[in-house]
Amino acid sequence: MKLSKVSLEEAERNKRQAFNDTPHFFLHHHKLCNYKGFWLSENVVTNVELLRDGFAPRPTDVFIASHPKCGTTWLKGLAFAALNRLLTLNPHECVPLLEVTLQGMNLSYVESMSSPRLLSFHLPASMLPTSINDVFSNCRIIYVCRETKDVFTSTWHFYQTLIESVGMKPPPIEDAFESFCGGVVPYGPIWEHVLEYWRESQQKPGKVLFLRYEEMIEDPRRILRMIAQFMGCEFSKEEENTGLVDKLVELCGFNSLSNIEENKHELIIDGNIKIKKSLFFRKGLVGDWANLLTPEMAQRLDEITQEKFNGSGLNF
Ligand code: PAP
Fold first, then answer.
1. Ligand 1 mean position to 48 CA, how many Å?
2. Which ranges carry the Sulfotransferase domain (predicted)?
């Protein structure tokens, strides 16, 4: 990876310019800044600049992209299993998150990965390194989105547990909800994030595969086959006959992944933030928002989603 065009100092300067008075933070411990219309944490802003000019994708690369809490862990597992016909580790360890890895310890690992590489981003499409969107680049992107009320619910539980685990007090849910509705959440606003990839997938269906968490829940076998076909490694008749698709779906399923010993230990991200792997597996259900949101909150999020997606051809 070449990082010569934008120096670290330049990236730092641009990042400082991007910071302004945040109206309210979703998380006490997460300093977010509005960078080109999206709320990102400090280190991610630096890395976007470095990646944008310096990242050299390989034509065979496949990127998993998502707004957080939309089914990333599961999709990483399915894509890795499709490519390798197995899954042995926590999906996050098999598929590195590029904009976080860069500043941490694992860049050399990304470079040493053999092709085809599976990498991931939570970045919006407009912030991907231009080399990935280049017409000459054959890289493919698999994006997963999820119904907004469930995304808020999953996000709330994740950070509540994380904040409490470091001895801090989470914000009142009403404040977190207001933040989310205003888009002030890591990588938010979610609606613009989803729309950017949705439009890309409409314009370039061979390059961007657009998936929904709900359809993964409904028919994971169909989605696994679709992912394999999109990546150019579809299942042979022989593999189908041996029940490989069923086995891989089972291997990546919520119960299987959340119960393996490997996923009960800590996962170290970005050098110093430690997140328990078990935090990535909570309930894995559609509609769990009904156990958290008041009817008013639910209606408010529905209205925002309807308004934002109006005319796009996208709905839930
Ligand atoms: P991330 O962006 O931090 O990586 P992500 O994996 O996108 O998180 O989302 C986590 C959600 O996916 C959790 O949803 P919940 O809070 O509503 O339960 C998690 O339980 C769910 N999840 C993780 N693995 C699976 C799986 N194998 N099958 C179904 N859902 C899953």
1. 25
2. 59-313
Rounded to whole angstroms, the Cα distance separating 208 from 303 reads: 27
The CA 285 to ligand 1 mean position distance, Å, reads 9
Collect all residues with Cβ–Cβ distance below 8 Å to 231 and sequence separation of at least 6: 62, 79, 82, 83, 116, 140, 142
Among protein residues, the one whose CA lies closest to atom 14 of ligand 1: 284
pLDDT digits (tens, 9 = 90+) for 25-42: 455 456 788 999 999 988
Nearest to 212 by CA among 159, 148, 152: 148
Q: For residue 106, what pLDDT is reported?
A: 53
Best of 69, 78, 149 for a ligand 1 pocket test (most atoms within 8 Å of beta carbon): 69
Q: Which pair of tokens denotes residue 213? A: 């968490």
Q: Would you say 3 and 17 are in contact if contact means Cβ atoms under 8 Å apart?
A: no
pLDDT, tens digit (0-9, with 9 covering 90-100), for 285-296: 999 999 999 999
Report the candidate in 73, 97, 77, 75 with the shortest Cα–Cα distance to residue 87: 77
Task: Indicate left, alpha or beta for 36 from its phi (over 0: left) and psi (-120 to 50: alpha).
Answer: left
Answer yes or no: are the C-beta atoms of 64 and 120 closer than 8 Å: yes
Partners of 41 in the beta sheet? 32
d(CA 36, CA 41): 13
Q: Whose CA is nearest to atom 24 of ligand 1?
A: 74
Token output for 276 = 């328990």
Q: What's the gap between Cα 264 and its chain centre?
A: 21
